Amino acid sequence: MRKTLIIAILFLLLLLFGSSAMVLAFVRIAPFHAEQALFPIQENLEHALLVFYFDPTSKASYELDLLEKRIQDMEQVEGQVEEIPRINSVLIELDHVINRFQFVSAESESNLREEFVKELNSIQDKMLLYTFLAETYPQEFNTLQAKIAGLKFLAMDVSNPLSALFTLSQGENSALEQANDPSDSSNQEPDFVDPRMVPFLPGSAGASHAFFPLTGKHAELTCQNCHSNMTYAGTPNQCAVCHSNVVPINHFDGMVCSTCHTTSAWKPASFDHAAVGATDCQSCHSGDKPNNHFSGQCSSCHNTNAWKPASFDHAVAGATDCQGCHSGNKPNNHFSGQCSSCHNTNAWKPANLDHAAAGLTDCQGCHNGNKPNNHFSGQCSSCHNTNAWRPASFNHAAAGLTDCQGCHSGNKPNNHFSGQCSSCHNTNAWKPANLDHAAAGLTDCQGCHSGNKPNNHFSGQCSSCHTTNAWKPASFSHANAGATDCQSCHSGDKPNNHFSGQCSSCHNTNSWGSASFSHSAAGATDCQGCHSGDKPNNHFSGQCSSCHNTDSWESANFSHSFPLNHGNANSVCAQCHPSGGTEWTCFNCHNENELTHKHQEEGISNFVVRCMECHSDGRKHDD
Question: What is the extent of the structural domain holding 581?
């Protein structure tokens, strides 16, 4: 019996030892993954072995070993749905580790801290490859990264005990426990770790707080002052959220404190009108202005530093209608136009009316009561300038006055030239006067000088002989006078029995002497008309031009078909032409009886009138 009991005990011990060995081997090998059905059994067995560890440090070290296993198990599922259950198992084990840290002693923290930071680095490295989780659930992925980074930040700070990490793992830690089963087609969205405040990484945008610089009094705040709901994202940064309870009554309604105040103190405050684009002064200061004040913008007169000194800038205000403000400021009978026509924007005096700027071209509109009796009725500007009435100088051209008679009809002496004054006088003085016949258009000399010429004077225009400077010297220009009929003036000047034709036939217009009769110019082709009494007795009765030229009677050359050197015929025409005319005879030189007898012997009859048939050249023919 005793032997049987011993065998049974040994068997039980052997069975227990074998079971323990199998459990240890099972835990050591860890064949199942988080997404598999038997993984919870494996996980429970792993934690059951904690009974073999007795002090908090060894228990925490064992949990760190399990965490390392879970981290290694994150491999080979990158980009797959299995990322979710595996990262979930890591987070669960991470909470177990942190839970053990609250019981460890300060002396053992150093090694545990170093190991914990190493595991956190491994988690961060593995998560960089988890593309499925990052792309499918980006917000949750970022939250997990923030948690790991926050834990790492606190763990590396040796001033914080590891037990402080326990506060970050409180709450329901169901993160990813309901991870999607790869075989589950429902694709249910997993539940993640509850949100809790995680410190920002050193040097990160959150840690530096550059998006909302913590200066002045803001630098004295803790994170919880603004992020009281344990979240960072979405925290309002408007001044009114915190400072609405300190705004005075009738305060500027912009509600952006930084417009006027700094983060150091409420005072001194300075409102930057330009920075906030405050261009409508009336929107704030409508109640600040005195009675009957300028209704425009404050900036037209004031600067943004103080109300005084004030200077109204008409140009900036676009104030071009002076009457709009100053209609009640002007004296009686004052100029009705704009103030700017005479005054500047600095003061009323000194005043100077700028006629050009005011567009004042009608002098009569203002000065019709200022002129003396019988004064020029035209514009003042014709004589005066805009500075003073004197000195005055009448500008006939500027006044457009071309009709002298309109003003000076009563100024001229008796029997004065009836034309325009400008024909003789200039606009400076009456004397010296010089009649400009051309300017006056005076071409009819008789209209003025008909009573000035001597008796029996040339009846034509004075300009034919005289110039407009003086009567003498005078020079008659027959060409200018168009005087081509010499007889009309000189019929009484010629001697008796003078040529009855035009003087110009022999004389020039300079003098009577050196006369030369131009027969061709006079058209004198009938010599007998003048020279019938000049020829000797028994002279050739034909035209003188048959023998003579117009230079002299001598060197006459008669154009004669019969040789004039025949015998002595050249001496006297009557030798051959005893009866005158063209009839001729040869018997004044030749014996008629001899010629008759000889010609009869040769059988030539009636030869008396036929001499020229055989002797036209005046020669004797032997045959």
Answer: 558-623
Q: Is the predicted pLDDT of residue 474 greater than 80, yes or no?
A: yes
Sequential DSSP letters for 337-354:
S-GGGT--SS-S-S----
Counting the structural domains of the chain, the total is 2
Q: Is residue 562 one of the residues assigned to a domain?
A: yes
Residues 6+ apart with CB under 8 A from 468: 435, 436, 437
Q: Is the omega angle on the peptide bond into residue 213 within 30 degrees of 0, that is, cis?
A: no
Residues in the chain: 623
Is residue 83 within 8 A of residue 141, CB to CB? The reply is no
Q: How confident is the model at residue 187 (pLDDT cuts 50, 70, 90)?
A: very low
Peptide bond just before 432 cis, omega within 30 deg: yes
Q: What does the CA dihedral 119, 120, 125, 130 come to, rounded to 10 degrees?
A: 110
Radius of gyration for the chain, computed over Cα atoms and rounded to the nearest angstrom: 74
E strand map for 519-618: none
User: What is the number of other CB atoms lying within 10 angstroms of the CB of residue 587?
Assistant: 12
**Least confident piece of the model among 27-41, 173-187, 455-469, 496-510:** 173-187
**58 belongs to a structural domain:** yes
Which residue bears the tokens 């006369």? 515
Q: How far is CA 96 from CA 56, 164, 218, 241, in A?
A: 12, 14, 38, 40
Q: Which one-letter DSSP state was computed for residue 283?
A: H
Residue 404 near residue 420 (C-beta atoms within 8 A) = yes
Select from 139, 169, 199 the last residue of a domain: 169
The residues, any chain, with a CB within 8 Å of residue 119's CB and separated by 6 or more, are: 64, 67, 68, 71, 97
Q: Is residue 69 part of a domain?
A: yes
Handedness of CA 378, 381, 385, 388 (dihedral sign): positive
pLDDT tens for each residue of 406-438: 788 777 888 788 778 888 888 888 888 888 788
> pLDDT at position 177, please?
41
Instruction: For tokens 């979405």, name the residue.
Output: 234
Express each pLDDT in 344-402 by its tens digit: 888 888 888 888 877 888 888 888 777 788 788 778 887 888 888 888 888 787 777 78
pLDDT at 332: 81
* Residue where a domain stops, chosen among 153, 169, 185: 169
Q: Quick check: is 118 in a domain?
A: yes
Tokens, residue 435: 């009649």
Q: DSSP secondary structure string, 89-119?
A: HHHHHHHHHHHHHTTS-GGGHHHHHHHHHHH
pLDDT exceeds cutoff 60 at 175: no
Q: Is the pLDDT of residue 11 over 70?
A: no
From residue 305, how far is each of 262, 309, 328, 618 by CA, in Å? Answer: 18, 10, 31, 144
CB distance 576 to 585 below 8 Å: yes
